[in-house]
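Example S7 (C-alpha cells).
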C-alpha cells in the first residue's frame, strides 16, 4: 500500500500544481457566477449537436416520407415528423449547424471590422465624422428589412446570409469600440507613449486596442445571439437560406400549417432556438459583471 502511494503521490502533486489555479478559478466562478457555467454548458451542448449531427441520428434530414407524416414523438420518431414525413429531431440537430455557423461567423466578422473602424473613428477625428455618418446611415434602416433586401438581391446561400446579417449588425459594435477608444486615448499611459515618440500603429495595437477587448467581448455575445435570431427570422419569412436546408426558422414556418395537430414541429426547433439564445445571453451578462464590476454593483 505504501509503495502504491509513493508512486501515485507525485502524480497527484503534479496534477494539483498544473490544474490547481484553474480549479480555484472554476470554484470561484461556480460560487459567484453560476449562470455563466450554465450558459457555457448550454453552448457546449449545442456545439456538440452541431459537430456530431451525422452520428447522433442517421436519418437524412431532407428525406420525405409521406406515409409517416405528422407522427407523434415516440420510440421510432423521437421528436415526431413534420407535414411531409421528415424527421423533426434530425432536422433540428442539423439546424443547429446553420444557426451556430451564422452566429459565430457574424460575431467574428463584426469583432474584426468593429475593432478596425472603431479604432480609426475613435482615435482620428478626421475619420470619425465619415465613418460614424456611414454607420448612422446603416443603422437608420430597420435591420430586418435591410437584411431581406440584401439576401433577395444576391441569393439565399449561407455565406450571403452571413454577409447580410453582418452588414446590418457591425455598426453597433463599431460604436462600442469607438466609445471606448475616445476615453482610452486620453489615458496617461497613451499620452506617455506618444511623448516618448511611439508611432501611432504601435500605440493603437499595444495600448488602445487591449482596452477595447472587454466591451467588445460582451457586445460580441449579444451579436452572436442576435444573429442567430435574425437568421431564424429570415428563414421563417422565406428570405433566408435554401428552404431545403434544415434551419430552425424554416422548420417553424413549415409547422405553422399543422400547429393545431402537431405542436412539436414548431415547439422543438423553437425550444432549441430559445435555449441557445438564452445560453449565449447568460454568458454575455456574466462576462459583463466579471469584466465591469461597477455595472454589477449598480444593478444595471
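Recovered sequence:
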Amino acid at each position: 500500500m505504501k509503495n502504491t502511494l509513493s508512486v501515485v503521490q507525485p502524480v497527484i502533486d503534479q496534477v494539483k500544481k498544473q490544474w490547481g489555479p484553474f480549479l480555484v478559478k472554476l470554484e470561484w466562478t461556480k460560487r459567484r457566477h453560476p449562470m455563466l457555467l450554465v450558459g457555457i454548458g448550454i453552448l457546449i451542448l449545442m456545439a456538440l449537436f452541431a459537430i456530431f449531427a451525422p452520428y447522433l441520428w442517421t436519418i437524412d434530414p431532407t428525406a420525405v416520407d409521406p406515409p409517416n407524416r405528422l407522427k407523434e414523438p415516440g420510440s421510432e420518431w423521437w421528436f415526431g415528423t413534420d407535414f411531409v414525413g421528415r424527421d423533426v429531431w434530425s432536422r433540428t440537430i442539423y439546424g443547429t449547424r446553420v444557426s451556430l455557423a451564422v452566429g459565430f461567423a457574424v460575431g467574428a466578422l463584426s469583432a474584426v471590422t468593429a475593432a478596425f473602424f472603431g479604432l480609426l473613428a475613435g482615435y482620428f477625428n478626421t475619420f470619425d465624422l465619415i465613418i460614424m455618418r456611414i454607420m448612422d446611415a446603416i443603422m437608420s434602416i430597420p435591420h430586418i428589412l435591410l437584411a431581406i433586401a440584401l439576401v433577395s438581391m444576391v441569393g439565399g446561400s449561407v455565406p450571403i446570409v452571413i454577409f447580410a446579417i453582418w452588414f446590418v449588425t457591425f455598426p453597433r459594435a463599431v460604436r462600442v469600440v469607438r466609445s471606448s477608444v475616445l476615453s482610452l486615448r486620453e489615458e496617461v499611459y497613451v499620452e506617455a507613449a506618444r511623448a516618448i515618440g511611439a508611432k501611432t500603429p504601435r500605440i493603437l495595437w499595444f495600448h488602445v486596442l487591449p482596452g477595447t477587448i472587454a466591451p467588445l467581448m460582451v457586445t460580441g455575445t449579444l451579436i452572436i445571439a442576435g444573429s442567430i435570431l435574425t437568421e431564424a427570422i429570415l428563414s421563417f419569412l422565406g428570405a433566408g437560406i435554401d428552404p431545403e436546408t434544415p434551419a430552425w426558422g424554416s422548420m417553424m414556418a413549415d409547422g405553422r400549417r399543422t400547429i393545431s395537430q402537431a405542436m412539436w414541429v414548431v415547439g422543438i426547433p423553437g425550444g432549441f432556438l430559445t435555449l441557445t439564445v438564452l445560453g449565449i445571453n447568460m454568458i454575455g451578462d456574466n462576462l459583463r459583471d466579471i469584466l465591469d464590476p461597477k455595472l454589477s454593483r449598480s444593478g444595471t
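Notes on this example. Confidence is low (pLDDT under 50) at residues 295-300.
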